[in-house]
Amino acid sequence: MSGAELITAWRDHLADARRRSPHTVRAYVDAAQRLIAAQGLADWASVARVEAHALRAHLAQRRAEGLGNASAARELSALKAFITFAKAQAGDPEPAAPRLRGPRLKKGLPRPVTPDEASNLADLVDGLAGEDWVGARDRAVLLLMYGSGLRIAEALSLTGRDATLGEVLQVTGKGGKQRVVPVLPIVRAAVAEYGAACPWPLVPEAPLFRGAKGGPLSPGMVQRAMAQARRALGLPDTATPHALRHSFATHLLSAGADLRSLQELLGHASLGSTQIYTKVDAASLLANYRAAHPRAAKR
Description:
Elements: H1 3-17, H2 22-39, H3 44-48, H4 52-64, H5 69-90, H6 115-128, H7 132-148, H8 152-156, E1 168-172, E2 178-182, H9 185-197, H10 219-233, H11 241-254, H12 259-266, H13 271-274, H14 276-292
Antiparallel strand pairs: 1-2
Helix pairs in contact: 1-2, 2-5, 4-5, 6-7, 6-10, 7-9, 7-11, 11-14
């Protein structure tokens, strides 16, 4: 058996047996390919024998190449899943992957998650879910919050008539105030993937996002899924579902959006509520300046 055959079997398992999203499949397959190439693995038995020290050395090399904490933690999760699968294929009596902790971020002031962290969180809730449709559901909800700036209650208030999204979406926020928000292609695709996988009929008047028994999905389930992914990625406790909405706002402001437009997109009743993001963005810029400028610490 060759490394290419291992990768083909792993990809088929993720896509067909586990029905993971294309994003998760791509990330998990890429991680496995890097491990196979680095360790010279050629069959399931050799993958199954990869131990914690070898994984640690592999991740250290990846970190030396510039991989960040969150991405390194996500890669470790992918490799553990790959090794667990290899053990099953090889008939290994010890089914668990090597025990190895992922990197942890230092706790500091509350901050929005980065674009990479948001993407990793959304993909990892998919990868960690016990059922395929549940993973697709949680990923779609998180991407709606990050990509369109929805509150968790707004995302969960969508109905079956919203299953096929266009480039914009009309949502009803606090106080019954309606607004129109953009819907990125990745968000539209995630909602479509969930709709195709959901075991419950998505009728217009029923909730779009369903719980395990078919009822409305509760915010607590989304929060728990994100907490699990957050711990796996080594992100701080401030990386909550609502932080994704904050990140949407902060990143738009960094890209040049004006406060009035941002106020409309967020559905804030007053501009004062929106102005907090100018402070968050200024703090981010100052932190970057201090990290990059050789004389910044002395000024």
